[in-house]
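QA checklist item 7 of 12: single-chain prediction sanity check.
[x] sequence parsed
[x] length recorded as 126
[x] structure emitted
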Amino acid sequence: MKLRIRGNALRLRLQRQEVQKLKEAGKVIEQTCFGDNVFQYTLEADATVTAIRADLAANLIRIRIPEAQAKIWANSEEVGLYAEQPSKSGPLKILIEKDFACIKPRTSAQWEDDSDAFPNPNPSCG
């Protein structure tokens, strides 16, 4: 699962196995170690929420999606889910997407492995 943060926006991109894990286990967890500190982010299917929401506490970004919505998305061809969450500095934009394989080969494939990405529906740039 990839996380991109830009301004007041969060974007998650999930590969096929991660979408399957969300569907079966209800949760996907990723972490990055900074020396002795660990930063985590999760995507959770949660029956107690009525809308997509994100929270931050103790080195953890927790994004929750209504359980029924997660199942529908995981079992469909729908690419992404979008939500806005009110905050003091304006809405926090949240985008959850299925991760597609790159059209062009990566110059540094060791950084990102596309082998489990969804097939790209646009096989060419033109």
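[x] summary fact logged: Residues 2-98 form a domain with the Gyrase A; domain 2 fold (CATH 3.30.1360).
[ ] second reviewer sign-off
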